[in-house]
Specification:
The protein is an alpha/beta fold. It is built from 13 helices and 8 strands. An 8-stranded mixed sheet has the order 1-8-7-2-3-5-4-6, sandwiched between helices. Helix 11 runs parallel beside helix 12. The C terminus is likely disordered. It binds S-adenosylmethionine.
């Protein structure tokens, strides 16, 4: 083996099968070019869910408890701000989120194998920014799937109550039954991209050369049927929850199984509680991951330790997702009330 190839393998070795504490944007350039088989990441959605989700330069916006209206109201802080914004600068948040995505997606491009797949989780309101950033970085959009959750909170303020608080009794009666906000958010988008392979080549040639770009339908049938792009998965009964944006292991394992072979490398630069790492371990795949928040990072290490020792109950699937009969779906009693 010549020195150049060996040095490149060593570049990934430093990161392989571990979550690295730090900023992925600084670390991704150190990965080996054309080495990643699958990118699977639940990236920050840019909807100001928490400090780590504020990805714009807007300093005068009243985010995360900074406005007088938010003073002392933690519930309000977590719900975010009205979509209308409180200053003109708030209207740039989407564009600035897209620039942030573009900054690292262009770095990821070099690291992916030709013809490899990328699954990027996003928010219904901001996924178009992610798609633009990934397309501008050279990736091709293959599909947009929906992850359907077992249940969703309906947080829509009653207009009549707001009016009553203002003493507008007649108007409150008129608006009885009307609400502000959205319908219960039962699904989240997952953008599915592909890194292009060489023009003039065929997808089969590329599969032979790079071992990526096909779907393992044979092992991903549920109830004997081929999968649809509506993915219906929930948390296992004993799955530990340590991150507010944590994704179900079953969902992540499914996407890994669908698109990779054993021993292939899955990259997740935004690991959170380490769900992608646990799923990769459970599926005998290699992984590379990053996490910038020390608390999440430490918790992810504990989860990995448990998964590796198989002492964690989360390694045992306890309820089978029902992908293909969404209408019949009956969440476990515990989840129904959420
Ligand atoms: C949506 S959460 C991921 C949750 C994860 N899917 C799970 O199941 O726990 C995104 C994570 O990305 C992390 N993050 C944000 N910016 C980052 C960066 N530049 N480098 C590494 N991690 C980052 C955040 O701290 C957060 O934990």
């Amino acid at each position: 083996m010549d020195f150049l190839v060996w040095d490149e393998i060593k570049m990934n070795e430093k990161y392989l099968n571990r979550i690295t504490f730090g900023d992925c944007i600084d670390n991704i350039p150190h990965l080996t070019d054309d080495s990643i088989d699958l990118f699977l990441s639940d990236i920050p959605y840019g909807i100001n869910l928490d400090d780590w989700d504020v990805l714009h330069n807007n300093t005068n916006s009243a985010l995360l408890g900074k406005s007088p209206a938010q003073e002392g109201k933690t519930g309000f802080k977590r719900r975010g701000k009205p979509i209308n914004g409180w200053s003109q600068a708030d209207r740039n948040i989407g564009m600035e989120y897209q620039e942030w995505c573009n900054n690292w997606a262009s770095k990821v491009y070099q690291k992916m194998k030709k013809g490899s797949f990328l699954f990027v989780f996003g928010a219904r309101r901001t996924i178009h920014r992610v798609i633009n950033a990934f397309e501008d970085s050279g990736f091709l959009l293959k599909d947009t799937m929906a992850w359907k959750k077992p249940s969703a909170h309906h947080r829509a303020q009653r207009v009549s109550i707001v009016l009553e608080r203002r003493g507008l009794t007649e108007e409150a009666k008129k608006w009885d039954g009307w609400r502000l906000g959205n319908l219960a958010p039962i699904w989240e988008p997952i953008a599915w991209f592909m890194k292009p392979y060489k023009i003039g080549g065929t997808i089969t040639d590329n599969i032979l050369e790079n071992e990526v770009g096909a779907m393992n339908i044979g092992e991903c049938k549920l109830n004997g049927s081929c999968p649809t792009n509506l993915l219906q998965f929930g948390f296992r009964r004993n799955e530990k929850r340590t991150h507010e944006a944590q994704k179900p292991l079953d969902l992540i394992e499914y996407l890994i199984k669908l698109t990779t072979r054993e021993e292939q490398i899955v990259l997740d630069p935004f690991m959170g509680s380490g769900t992608t790492a646990i799923a990769a371990i459970n599926m005998n795949r290699k992984f590379i991951g990053f996490e910038i928040n020390q608390d999440f990072y430490e918790k992810s290490l504990l989860r990995i330790e448990e998964a590796e020792s198989k002492s964690g109950l989360e390694c045992l699937p306890v309820f089978q997702q029902t992908l293909f009969n969404a209408n019949d779906y009956n969440p476990p009693a515990k989840e129904r009330g959420k």
